[in-house]
Write a structure and sequence with these properties.
Protein name: GTPase Der
Subunit structure: Associates with the 50S ribosomal subunit.
Organism: Parasedimentitalea marina
Shape: globular
Structural class: alpha/beta
Family: Belongs to the TRAFAC class TrmE-Era-EngA-EngB-Septin-like GTPase superfamily. EngA (Der) GTPase family.
Helix content: 25-40%
Function: GTPase that plays an essential role in the late steps of ribosome biogenesis.
Strand order of the largest sheet: 2-3-1-4-5-6
Bound molecules: guanosine-5'-diphosphate, magnesium ion
Largest sheet: 6 strands, mixed
Length: 163
């Protein structure tokens, strides 16, 4: 059985980096600068023996503060509707922000399968943020480093029973 995984979360947490790693091609743009990626991007992912469709949510990087929350909400709701499973990503180095809280609220309301990932998890600078992530009420966070490819075994372990 194949499934669709949507990667959601505020800009700059590392969604496209994980998307690229799962898809293995540079289909999603990754950039340090805001304003690069747009809307929703779909690719065929591989993780060990799992094959699935992955959706990268973008299109938020160029939003002004005023429009960001509304756009984020609409885009996330679209992605959640398309997906069987949502991977909600936060930046463990930054800790939980008010925008992260807003996402968590959307995802708690949708009764979708949610996997919580605390990304940029390499190194001690992420320790506090990983602990904070427990407070989001979305279960135990996976400590990920999308850039360094760490924590993918834990992602696999959480995806397996849902696949
Ligand atoms: P997106 O806006 O959520 O799609 O985030 P991007 O994938 O574009 O990444 C934003 C920035 O975070 C880029 O500079 C990435 O190189 C960086 N980044 C992504 N994953 C990691 C990670 O695991 N660790 C660290 N230190 N940086 C990361
Ligand atoms: Mg992106």
């Amino acid at each position: 059985m194949s499934f669709t995984l949507a990667i959601v979360g505020r800009p700059n947490v590392g969604k496209s980096t994980l998307f690229n790693r799962l898809v293995g091609k540079k289909l999603a743009l990754v950039d340090d600068q805001p304003g690069v990626t747009r809307d929703l991007r779909e690719g065929e992912a591989r993780l060990a023996d799992l094959r699935f469709t992955v959706i990268d949510t973008a299109g938020l990087e160029d939003a002004t503060d005023d429009s960001l929350q509304g756009r984020m909400r609409r885009l996330t709701e679209r992605a959640v509707e398309m997906a069987d499973i949502c991977l909600f990503m936060i930046d463990a180095r930054a800790g939980v922000t008010p925008l992260d809280e807003m996402f968590a609220e959307i995802l708690r309301k949708k009764s979708a399968n949610v996997i919580l990932a605390a990304n940029k998890g390499e190194g001690a600078a992420a320790d506090a943020g990983v602990i904070e992530a427990y407070n989001l009420g979305l279960g135990e966070p996976i400590r990920l480093s999308a850039e360094h490819g760490e924590g993918l075994n834990d992602l696999y372990t959480q995806l397996m029973p849902l696949a």
